[in-house]
Amino acid sequence: MNDILAINANLKYIEFILNLFDNGEDNITLADIRLKFRENFKMIHPLLNQNFGILRLLPIVLIREDIKGSPNKNDDKKNIMIIRHAVCHNGFSMSEKGYKFSCDKGEVEFNYKDFVDFVHRIENLFHNNSL
Questions:
Q1: Starting at the edge strand that comes first in sequence, how are the strands of the sheet with 99-103 ordered?
Q2: Which tens digits make up the pLDDT trace of 7-55?
Q3: How far is residue 34's CA from residue 29's CA, in Å, rounded to a whole number?
Q4: Most-buried pick from 43, 62, 121, 127 (CB within 10 A)?
């Protein structure tokens, strides 16, 4: 439950920032944004912690949809498929060690650093049409 609350706080923060970007004053500072957010949502915990990484799953889910009919299956594509199914079917968990994705297709675990490296590598491969 605490993980869900932290993730929800991150999403609220992103929505808040995007709204300020669209509708805010031109001279607003980051300090002003942070203060307004804390006042509006009574937030006392830091937002940019390891939970923020869950938002990095969105590109992986979307990339999986784009490559799902691809004939060649390598480890990266298998991991992408497992991650997508795990996230979409509630087989995803986080701990102090990192992320764990489980589904009927298999299981993948990443520590936080390896997860960020994996996502960056996959995004670069995808954008270079090398995946």
A1: 92-94, 99-103, 106-110
A2: 666 677 778 777 887 888 888 887 888 788 778 777 665 555 555 566 7
A3: 9
A4: 43
Q: Where are the domains of the chain?
A: 2-48, 52-127
What is residue 24's DSSP assignment? S
- Tokens 């954008």, located at residue: 127
DSSP string, 25-82: -TT--HHHHHHHHHHHH---S-SSSGGGGGGGHHHHHHHHHHHTT-S---HHHHHHHH
Enter the pTM of the model.
Answer: 0.62
Report whether 91 contacts 103 (CB < 8 A). Answer: yes
Given a contact cutoff of 8 angstroms between Cβ atoms, the answer to whether 42 and 74 are in contact is no
